[in-house]
Amino acid sequence: MSKETSVAGAVIIGAGHAGITAAALLRQRGFDDPITIIGDSEHLPYHRPPLSKAYLSDPDGAMDPLRPSEFYRSEGIDLVRGQQVSSIHPDRKMVRLDNGATLEYSSLILATGARPRDLTITGSQLRGVTSLHNYEDSLALRDLLGAGPGTKVAIVGAGYVGLEVAAAGLKHGVDIIVVERADRALGRVASPDLSAWLSGYHRARGTRLLTSADLQEFLPGEAGAVRALRLADGTVIDCDGALVGVGVLPCDELARAAGIDCDSTGVVVDAHARTSTSAVYAIGDVTSRPVPPYPGRFRLESIPSATEQAGQAVAAILGLDAPKPEVPWFWSDQFDVKIKIAGLLVGATTAVVRGNPADDRFAVFHLADDDTVRAVETVNSAPEFMAGKRWIADGVRVDPRRIQDQSIALREVPSGTPVGS
């Protein structure tokens, strides 16, 4: 790209799932003006969920592109790789790249995602202490796990990423220890029922899971490499490498510098993915968004949320009817288990279990005081996931006793008309 000012109809900052989906939808729905996607990676945009799953388990696992290179040519989409935007100038409807090039836009979509939260403790910069954000990180982690039996890997943080990596490591025969500061795994994102079951499932398969464990420092070994972790109680845990997975932060610096409204969780958008600034939209993991019917704002780290918001932004840009709001959902694959969750735990007061956790096939339905379903967490239970997701969308009341009784078919569980009917 030259340093001369170029004119582009739609500029998308970020070449992850959100950004690529938005570009594809713009073309599908009749947007004929230029589209430019700016990504900071030299790679063709690729799927991110496998970073903590398939890429680690398969020694020959290759990067899985979101779209083939021919897609960008055939759709007339200019994909700028290996570049970063240095600033946004809403008053001029222009963005400036690190190389000095500028792009004008009629619509700007921020799809900058999120980055791993760093630990600022002694030793966190040692060689062998890593996070998991991109394909290179996954390859380095795969090499560590691939060293096989006798290799000791410490994982800091018992969130979904940490537990997924732990499962992949055990398949390689690696010794895995997970250190979690909270009193249970998945403390921020899962119910106590799911947390307790998954913790037991991991421990039964060899994961050493320490909760209420406050990490104080990483200890150096030879040539500046990490050799151990020290906890607040003095415990020293030997390791050959360490993964830090303690959450993510929104990449909202460009928006903040441009005067676009942000809150503590990301770029503030409305139900149409509009920001506070005219002609600027934001989608994906960087956003603080409304999620009907739940009160408040949320930053959802999921592919379904990114896809939904891409559709919202494209409809707003093209002046089309807004798409129907979707129930948020999430998934995680660990060992031979598929975990799927629909909805949010917000407003739930009662948890009802259908099935037997001891059989590794069950669902936890979370109900509000009015017996509407707010969320469902499922383990190897696709029918319960689909039913719960539908009940959340429809706002129907359910009878907790009928959920528990597996002799009653799921279609017969709802016990009343939708709330507000």
Task: Walk me through the structure.
The chain has 421 residues and is of the alpha/beta class. The strands form 7 sheets. It has a 5-stranded parallel beta sheet with strand order 4-3-2-8-21. A 5-stranded parallel beta sheet has the order 10-17-11-12-13. A 5-stranded antiparallel beta sheet has the order 24-25-28-27-26. Helix 1 runs parallel beside helix 8. It is globular, with a radius of gyration of 23 Å. It starts with 5 loop residues before the first strand and ends in a 17-residue tail after the last helix.
What is the element layout, followed by pairings?
Elements: E1 6-7, E2 10-13, H1 17-28, E3 35-38, H2 54-57, H3 69-74, E4 77-80, E5 85-89, E6 94-97, E7 102-104, E8 107-110, E9 114-116, E10 129-130, H4 135-145, E11 152-156, H5 160-171, E12 175-179, H6 192-204, E13 208-210, E14 215-220, E15 226-231, E16 236-238, E17 241-244, E18 248-250, H7 253-257, E19 262-263, E20 266-268, E21 280-282, E22 287-291, E23 294-298, H8 303-318, E24 329-334, E25 337-343, E26 350-356, E27 361-367, E28 373-379, H9 382-394, H10 400-404
Parallel strand pairs: 1-7, 2-3, 2-8, 3-4, 8-21, 10-17, 11-12, 11-17, 12-13, 20-22
Antiparallel strand pairs: 5-6, 6-7, 9-18, 14-15, 15-16, 19-20, 22-23, 24-25, 25-28, 26-27, 27-28
Helix pairs in contact: 1-8
